[in-house]
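User: My collaborator sent over this chain with a note saying "see what the structure looks like." That's all I know about it. Can you take a look?
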Amino acid sequence: MTIALMLDIAIALMLGCAIFYAVRLRSILKTIQDGKDDLKQLVAVLGQQIAGAQNAIGQLQNTADNAVEDLQGKLVRARELSDELNLMNEAADSYASRLEKLASKNREIMEGMETARLQSTGARNLKPGAGEEVAGLFQIRDPDFIEDVADEEDEVVPAKPAPTFQSEAEKKLAAFLQGRKGTL
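Assistant: Without extra context I'll predict from the sequence alone. Here is the result:
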């Protein structure tokens, strides 16, 4: 065997190895190419998912902003209503205390008027039951319990001077009560 033949065989073996590696490389490149297509599809799907997530985040941000604005508006309205209710409560307390004062004044006026009427009719004392107070026009009178009827000679005590009223409503209330007094 000559050197040329050996070299030809060595070159043929090397070419065989080169062909083997070329076939193997081609199958690996085909696998990579198929993987590349799958990777492209995966990247495309991932891009769509990212775009969808960004859209959802934007919508969520808009919804959150709208909810914050709505809640702030409701909070402002609730504070306004709370302030208004506080004012109404204070006004109601003020009116209640004024009504209590007016009721006390009217009670005193009516007691004075009742005392003057009783004195002018000649009755001096009413005999109330145990622990009861004699109260203005709104009591039941029983003539059997009237004591010490004044004689014609008894001196009549003049009534209290006419009260001064602070408002038109007080004047109307006193006039109304005096009108009712005549019907009792």
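A starting point for your reply to your collaborator: The beta strands are 125-126, 146-147.
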